Target: Rho GTPase-activating protein 10
Amino acid sequence: MGLQPLEFSDCYLDSPWFRERVRAHEAELEKTNKFIKELLKDGKNLIAATKNLSAAQRKFAHSLRDFKFEFIGDAETDDERYIDASLHEFSNFLKNLEEQREILALSVTETLIKPLERFRKEQLGAVKEEKKKFDKETEKNYSLLEKHLNLSAKKKELQLQEADNQVEQNRKHFYELSLEYVCKLQEIQERKKFECVEPVLSFFQGLFTFYHQGYELAKDFNHYKMALQINIQNTRSRFEGTRSEVEELMNKIRRNPQEHKRANHFTMEGYLYVQEKRPAPFGSSWVKHYCMYRKETKKFSMVPFEHRSGGKLGDAELFVLEYCTKRNTDTIDRRFCFDLEASDRPGVPVTMQAFSEEDRKLWMEALDGKEAVSIILKIFFYSLDKIGFTIIKKCISAVETRGINDQGLYRVVGVSSKVQRLLSLLMDSKTCNEVDLENSVDWEVKTITSAMKQYLRSLPEPLMTYELHGEFIVPAKSGSPESRVNAVHFLVHKLPEKNKEMLEILVKHLANVSQHAKRNLMTVANLGVVFGPTLMRPQEETVAAIMDLKFQNIVVEILIENHEKIFKTLPDATFPEPISMSVSPPNAPPRQSRRQGQRIKRPLAVYNLCLELDDADSHSSPREDTPTGSMDSLSSQSPTPAFSSSPPGLLDGNHLIMDSGDLAGWTTNLPAQSRPSMVSWMNIPSANPAATNAALPTFFFPNPATGTDTAVESVAHRKARAVYPCEAEHSSELSFQIGAIFEDGKY
Model:
């Protein structure tokens, strides 16, 4: 039950129960006063905490704004640029949010703190003053009454009458004060309900306004957030593909470091210890130098460098080599030594020490050379000839007739043995015309697509050539979309005529495939992932080249999306203009502009591949599966082996003259970037079980006993097969679960 009302009539009675009700009202007001006092304290703490939070958020935003990611290579993809700019966007978002929080903190002071303080001071404080007066008058009234009642009846009538008048006046004053006090008590009891709650309501209104402003900011930020999630997923997918390539390259180099040395203008380079002679009492010292030698100019340079001294470079020394002599241990008390003599310092040899006997041998070979004994070797090379055009046209025709709507077209790989058998038939001019790919059920669509990709990968030089590889990559790294298209347009017309003709046939087909993406799920981005490494590859396999895989995909996307302009029209003769390769990524476009649809909406595809293998054959993992969760474009495709150049020796028609030492080194230790591309597409049984699924190029040795050529597969080819498998050498069932999502939510 609540407080009992205070009746004005009870003021005249001033009964004990009336006094109890007054004390109950007073206690309630005292409780209200304590509540408001505590609420004011908490409110001020809230304001202080809000200001501290705002300061911390601003500091956090400042840290985000000042940090910048560095990238590997000389350029970033658009996805990476947007990710770099995202920290600045986050900083701006927090800054805008904290501006609204500051407004909230000010509103708390004006709408909550000050009104409550005013109510407590003006209303509750006034009641306290009224209570003091009421208590004082009560004491005075009853003291005077007791004194009056103690007057003797023997006093004069005039004195008694004056005393009665005084008591009556005092009683009236007491009753008036009591009425006012009671009225004030009840007024405050009613007033506190809105005087206290209204400021709290205003506080919550300010709080709701703050949260609404935050909601509006978040709503405005949502489109940018969604686009950024796509950028992040694309970058993660590319990272997964790139990481596998980097690890593969690392393992290959770990197995044979010498085989995978980077190609540069130095014939030989590495660390050597150089003997520095001192005066007789001090003997000599050996100082580590980084040495470089160019055989063409015979210039030898060396720079002292000691890792333990903080890696400080010394002064470089350059001289022209006159000759190199091996030092035996009977002439010097150190192993792995040899002498060099400079042409400008005859008779003053410089003694150097290699790290090992093998290292010394490499240096000696680079500095001196050796003789060769020849054998004859016949090799079959792929080329862009009539047969090659026939293969591609037959495969494209079959795909467009039978499988243009197959899900995962060009991603699903065929069985290795079937692919090899099909290629062997197509490569033979006698059987090529007999192969019916459009109507025959013997050849699955995935077998046809794998054969076409394998043919393109096995060319001695990629379709878009080594020479123009770097030039194609440059526009993909920077510039506006229009400038990229113009640059690629210009470069395509610099390709050799046969390359351009083959590329036009292929790209026109890929554009047709992408137009059926709603059914086959092969968007332009997905086709870029598949054909980027197929049509383009660097001459040298390095980490930097692997980092450029994502840009190869972009170039293929540009070709597909703009094939009509690129192949049907001539490029501008005044193009290309220099493309800015700014290291610092540009800021991301404003979020508002993206909400207006300026950012191109691109389809997002998610692939979930599952292989079920037969137990009859060994498994060779397809190289074209991509990680689950790809967005704009899936993970970067593994680069195919960059076969180029011929082995050392003289090429005479179809015969290659090589010495036995070079042959052994070439067939087993040749770097991947310089292996020649040779395919006979024959399954040759091997005595080595590890090579049973080898299906790469085959050497043909003249066999005098039979008068025919004997096919022998090299160890290098089996090794390459293990690293770059074509397709699984077994029957496989590919279970495909594919989902597609679009940014606008329509697919």
